[in-house]
């Protein structure tokens, strides 16, 4: 066979070689109490992956995201992770949903040395893990979110929060209402304690945390009594109200509690609401609405700061007129950006091994997000953009 014929044959064979999909596995809440967040995160990620695939894939490979529903149940999440590995043969985990599910899946990823990219958890898993060689976080943690909100609420002087009462309602369904220590589940995975972790953060500001349980029949009424017994009014040196803080993740319960508090207080409310991971479609800048809220998102929510490939993808997949109504927009954008960073890191790494991704991520600079810096610290292993602002619930 002549060299020319051999070259032609190799070219024909190359044209007939099909690239294997990059198969990513996700277990998340798609039908349970936190389904709004899980569905929105998945939708955002799939929107970016779909755009990537339509534009040639990444290194010629198509990306497939296989999502299983765990209903926020840790045992089911643990089983789903095994199913994704053994039956669906996924190459990596992506967007594992929730603190308790992250705690169940992380040891599996470590034991099998499989990349665990963008788990949606604000807790510091690595503080309680002997290894953690496989996790790459792409969202801010609770500490970063709370620091950002506290700084916003205190007008840049966090010291004014010393002595404040911080009321936290873990209304997402966490069992740990009494600041219990971490325990083990049936699967052997840690059961996280978000209440205890947030209490430590609050203590750093010299404030005190008071847990609110709004789940019972008289939950709101009991909360009003506790708040009235505890809050006090203080103003800073510029005569601005220094708020006590009520931290609730559910907008509807926030409105209920605010209505009851307004009836029981005859003076300027000495409290300010905080919301994490809010539905941006419910917040605006008007002054005639029910309650002022300082809110945060563990990913970017300022669409005007997108540029480059991620801006092109956003324009192509998310019509601006639909943006505020796209479910939980914070989580949608979080999933969208996580997918973008996965694609960019894969371009650098060339594979999905945890070590290659960990080396690649610091080089995935924020060129596609103007006026922002992608944060990374070796201590907490998070790449993140955290956003906070103050607005009024529609």
Secondary-structure map:
Layout: H1 3-16, E1 22-28, H2 35-54, E2 63-69, H3 74-86, E3 92-94, H4 99-112, E4 116-117, E5 135-136, H5 142-153, E6 165-169, E7 183-184, E8 190-191, H6 194-204, E9 208-212, H7 219-230, E10 234-235, E11 241-242, E12 244-248, H8 251-264, E13 271-276, E14 283-284, E15 292-297, H9 308-317, H10 329-349, H11 354-360, E16 375-376, E17 383-384, E18 387-393
Parallel strand pairs: 1-2, 1-3, 3-4, 4-5, 6-9, 6-12, 12-13, 13-15
Antiparallel strand pairs: 7-8, 10-11, 14-18, 15-18, 16-17
Helix pairs in contact: 2-9, 2-10, 3-4, 7-8, 10-11
Low-confidence stretches: 5-19, 172-181
- Shape label: globular
Structural class, by secondary structure, is alpha/beta
Q: How much is the radius of gyration in Å?
A: 23 Å
The total of helices stands at 11
Quantity of strands, as a count? 18
Q: Could you give the distance between the termini?
A: 75 Å
Name the beta content range. 15-25%
Could you say what the CATH topology of the largest domain is called? Answer: Rossmann fold
H/E series? HEHEHEHEEHEEEHEHEEEHEEEHHHEEE
- What's the CATH class label of the largest domain? Alpha Beta
Walk across the major sheet and give the strand order.
Answer: 9-6-12-13-15-18-14
| Overall pLDDT confidence | 76
Per CATH, the architecture of the largest domain is: 3-Layer(aba) Sandwich
Task: Please indicate the count of domains.
Answer: 2
